[in-house]
Amino acid sequence: MIDKTVATAAEAVAGIPDGATVMIGGFGTAGMPSALIDALIAQGARDLTIVNNNAGNGEIGLAALLKTKRVRKIICSFPRQVDSQIFDALYRAGEIELELVPQGNLAERIRAAGAGIGAFFTPTGFGTLLAEGKETRMIDGRQYVLEYPIHADFALVRADRGDRWGNLVYRKTARNFGPIMASAATTTIAQVREIVPLGALDPEAIVTPGIFVKRIVALAAPTPMARPGAAG
Amino acid sequence: MNAPLPTQRYTRDQMAARVARDIPEGAYVNLGIGLPTMVANHLPADRDIFLHSENGLLGMGPAPAPGHEDPDLINAGKQPVTLLPGGAYFHQADSFGMMRGGHLDFCVLGAFQVSASGDLANWHTGAKDAIPAVGGAMDLALGAKKVFVMMEHLTKQGESKIVARCTYPVTALGCVSRIYTDLAVIDVTPAGLAVVDIVDGLSPTQLVELSGVPLHF
Q: For the domain A17-100+151-218, what is the CATH superfamily, name and number?
C-alpha cells in the first residue's frame, strides 16, 4: 500500500541537505507553506538556494528562514515589499545573492523544468536589464530571449486537501506557484489542511496529480493575512 | 520645464473614468497597481468585463465587506478581493500564459516614463541603492493586445514623463498604445504621438511645450 503521508512537519522536511535548491510556494502569504518552512529552519539545512515569488514578509515563514542566514541565494521576481525588511537588510549587506526574474519567466522556467523542456524563447524582458547577456532571436518578426528551466531538489507547497497518493487540490489564489513547483522538484512535499480518503477528491478537479508529490502532511495552520503592497 | 504650469488638470477619478470609457463589454483586462485600480470603480455595472489578476484569477470582484477578508483570496497587490460568479482560479504558468499568449485585451499600467515610440519604464528607477523588484511588470507590458498607461504628465519637478527616450530602465520596448495623463490623452502611433483629448484651458502649444516631444493634433 502506498502511503505518502507523514505525521509531522519535521518528518516531512527530513533529509533536505546543505546546498539544496528548494522551491517554496506562495504569493506573499497566500499558499506559503509556513509550517514546512518552520520545520526547515528547525532542521538546520544551510547554504540553500530558494525559489519563491517574493523574498519573505514580516518576520515569519520565508522571512524567518532568511533571518537564519542559511540562504545563499534567492531566485524571485518581487523581493522588495512593504514588509521585506529582513531580505532588504541582507541584500544591502551583501549577505544574499539575488537572481531577479520577471514573474512570468519565473513561472515558465519552473513549468519548463517540470515538463522536461530544455530551454525556451520568451518575449518578456527583451531589451531590458534583466535580459542583458542572454541569447536572443528574432522569430516571425518578434524578438525573444532564451531562458532556461529552474529545477529544484525539493519543493515545499501548500494545498488545501490531499490524499495518501499525493493528489492535491488548492484553495482560491493560494494555488499560485504550487502546481508548477510540485512538478519541477525531485522531491515535492505538500502541507495540506486535510488528508482525505482515496477517492474523496473529485478526479475531474484534482489540480496536482500524486505523481508529482512524494510526501504529504496535514497541518492545521492558518494563513496570515498578507500586508498589501506593491505588485508582484 | 519653463512653460507655465497648467491651471486645470483631470482629477484621478476623471482619468480613471476616461480609461473605463475605452474598455468595451466582453474585454479581458488587467489593472495594474495604484492609479489603474481606480478604473474598476468606473466600469459600468451592466457591462460584463473580466478582470484578471496575475496571481491567478479571472472575474475578480470588489473588496470584501470588513470582516469577510480571506487570506487565500487576494489580488496582485496582496489586497483582499472577491470572486464574481463565473470567476476562475488558475496557477501562475497559466496566468502568465494568458498575458504572454496575447489573450488579454487590455492592461492598464502606471509609469515613470513613456517614450515617443511607446517604450515603457515602470519597474525600476535605476538608483544605485534601490532594491530591484519586477514582478509581473514586464510580462504585462507586452502581454496585452492594448497597453494603456495612466500617469501624471509631469514629475514633481515639472519634467515631462513623456520623453524622446526613456532614461529609466525600460520595462518593454514599443508596447504602449495610449497614454492617459492629467493633461491629455495621447495615442502612440507609427507616425508619432497623436493627441486625442486635452484638458480644458490648455492650448496645444502649451501641451507641446510642457511635454518637450513632438505631438500631432
A: Glutaconate Coenzyme A-transferase (3.40.1080.10)
ipTM: 0.95
Global pTM reads: 0.96
CATH superfamily for domain B12-216: Glutaconate Coenzyme A-transferase (3.40.1080.10)
- Span B62-102, pLDDT tens digits: 999 999 999 999 999 999 999 999 999 999 999 999 999 99
Partner residue facing A27 (CB), from B55, B139, B171: B55
Residue B78: list chain A partners with CB under 8 A. Answer: 27-28, 30, 81, 226-229
Q: Nearest CA of chain A to the CA of B88: how many Å?
A: 9
Backbone φ and ψ of B69, nearest 5°: -70, 145
Residue of B51, B100, B128, B139 to mutate when probing chain A, most A C-beta within 10 A: B139
